[in-house]
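Hallway conversation turned thread

IA: we were arguing at lunch whether anyone had actually written out DUF1013 domain-containing protein end to end. Turns out nobody had. So, for the record, here is the sequence (253 residues) and right after it the structure tokens. Reply here if something looks off.
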Amino acid sequence: MTGKPLMAKATAVWLVDNTTLTFKQIADFAGMHELEVQGIADGDVATGVKGFDPIANNQLDQADIDRAEADPIARLKLKFNPSAVGEEKRRGPRYTPLSKRQDRPNAILWLVKFHPELTDGQIAKLVGTTKPTIQSIRERTHWNIGNMQPIDPVALGLCKQSELDAAVQKAAQKRAADGAAMTDDERRKLLSTEQSLGMETESRMPTAIEGLETFTLSNDDDEDNEYKKKPQYDAESLFNLPKGGGDDDEDDE
């Protein structure tokens, strides 16, 4: 399949309601995740979306649907539609479903917290928001900042992991080109998920003793030399007792 059908989610709704195709077949045709198609069937996704007939709109043939229904492994073939050419290359903000728009501030907070190197334009492109909203969350002046929690936008379904990794890699290249110094933690954040997990953990000195590595303890030989230099005393020298000829000898006589 070289492209997606027009109104992909609405097309998936129609296929779920009007065919016996598997979730995977519909997901592959509409460019969606299999679980998202299952959510459509369960009524949890695309609530209120009206189905878009791909047959009436010259995107599928009934014979192709019949063939795929008889063979769960078969894939639907999208008919060439000149009006769909270049649809994925449209410029402008990403469309975010109504059901997920309330999660965007949490995703922005996550990106600002864990990937501060991303520009406002990159964040806006990833989650489909505006720069004033991102700026208010960066400066913590957003009206609902007290109730917000950082949540991974990939987990929320607002962007793909590959898109996030590509944005992080681009930020890493720009920062490297600028020659900015980075700590190990910052360098790890600028890597993709696969690269970060593959890195070896560097040994670090505990912060409690950091800075003491230039000090050394005195050598045992030095201590022995210092001890030898000190004057040695014995009991007789301390009490300065006379050696013979004293009063005690006279008393004995």
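OS: looked through it. The two ends are 130 Å apart (CA to CA).
IA: good, adding that to the notes. Residues 98-196 form one domain.
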